[in-house]
Protein 1
Amino acid sequence: MQGNQSVQMNNDLFRDITQTVAMVMYKMGVVKQPGLQYFKNDSGIFEEIFTQHMTNSQLLAYKKISADMYLTICGSHAFGTGVYVAAMQARLEKPVEEFAADNIRVIGGTLSRIDAYELGLQTLNVAPDSQNKKALDQIIAFAKMTAMNSAGKNVLDMPNMKAYMQVLYNAGVTMMYGI
């Protein structure tokens, strides 16, 4: 895991995807102004999900099948995790940077049992067959399209994946809190 913590995000790609996602969310009426919220310190939760998606053999199998499928899975999981972690702040009545190790273990355990996107949808009370879910899918699709167009054949490189997943994690946080 420590090797992935040192992965530097592609900041240019991060900016490109953030601009796209923020504008899509604004045009959908999800946010009142085009921008994304984020955690200044999420107690390592994002790094953990990033590491898992870069090293888990089951998830990496999708990468071999289809870059598009792998990006969709990684993006939707990052988004769902952002929603869930933001919601946990309200449930635990403290900011994420004050989460105890036990709190983080509970979050990790929940995310290992339930698909992160499904958990995010449940947290937002969005039915899997609803128009709202289709709108959330579009946020991920636009992020993926921007990542693929900007990074090209290098889209699956770790710095690019980190940028892509971080933006969608932030979009999940934004969905929970809005701006």
Protein 2
Amino acid sequence: MRAQKLGIMVVLLGLGAVAVALVVRDPERRRVESAFFAYLGDLRMRRFDSASRRVFPDDLTRLKVSALEHASEYVVFRDSVMAFMGVSAPQDLAAVPRERFYEFLLDRTFAEHPEVHEVISQGSVVGTRIIHDGGNAAVDATFAVGTRQGRRQFVMHVDLVRLDDEWMVRL
């Protein structure tokens, strides 16, 4: 019985070693992780222009269309977008590059929810889980943040897609 348990332990350790070797030797995983941490660095430093260039272009186009529709319906939103973009007429918004709309929404989100930026900028990434399959990837990053109530953990989920051999964030 003891020999059987020892055999099972050896097999499990062997499988664990194979899993570690695959993770270490998986260059695509490292590329996904690198793309995620570059995006995270942009968010931490509020480099929204750089963060927007890391987003999948088709998603930026859909975001712009949605923001323009929202601006046509809601005056307060339209005024905020126009002020951020530095345009004086609503029709001028159509000429604004799509990346600027993502920058606006990041700026607005961080202004309205400073706790989001606080977690991203002050939290320590204590773990990442990366799953990739072909041209799609998902990253779950666990942040540890010290609060008055003690240490808390938050998870940030980011989907990525490979485009022209580069990993881009999906919205």
Protein 3
Amino acid sequence: MDYALNQSAWRRGWNDTKTIWTGWQFPVFELVGGGVIGRIFGWYWGVLLVLFGMFCVWLGATASAPLRQRNEARTRIIALEKEKQPQIEVHPFPSKRPSSERHNKTAWAALEVTNTSSGVDLDNASVQILELMQVFECQDEQGIGTGTYSLHELNPRWSPANVYWSERNAPANQLQISIPRGATRLAIIAFHSENGPALGCLNTPQYPPMLEHRIVIAVSSPNMNTWRGVYYIEYLPPSQDKFDFVEWDSWCSSHHVIERSTLDKEGFQP
């Protein structure tokens, strides 16, 4: 129940007392306790115990009312502050070009960003690839895959880069957009070009080719804390023409991944 913050401590204590009195636990306790005392010491003392119990409830509820009012006021203030800050939900969204559309992207891996705030727009939102590490399947001495995967830094090492937002939601080549409250926007992380090589391209200003990677992505805005997520991404060649784009932990749950230091000790070759 929500109580008015301007309610006096006496009124709040009385309201809480009535709530306790009319609940099923208190009458049961009072009747059982009063009945036991009444049978042992007489009904006068049983009735007196019931009245004393009711008085103690009122006294305790009234004395603790200011503390409960303070805690409730603090909870409401925190909730109001949260409403002033954008909240987002982020999901991987691999997709292919519908037959009704005509453009040079046949498949892509997008990040679906939803502003779940009910009262605040997300200003100048950007999506950035922070880290990119290549995923290799280790091979034995005969060059046969072992079913174990390792991570390797790119050479040269990847530098953080912003990706473009989908042209479905924004003008072309936009690295920052505003996301209205309750709205969803797509940031294209990687894509495959029509008549292009059997590789995907990261959707950054340089369009570098990509293979099989562990990718760390950040969503940021001046009016919210930066969100980060880790994903597995791979383009499956033109015969399938689609992206595998899932959360990293989900991919690792069905694949054995080891650190580079462990790989060196065991003598596998990438």
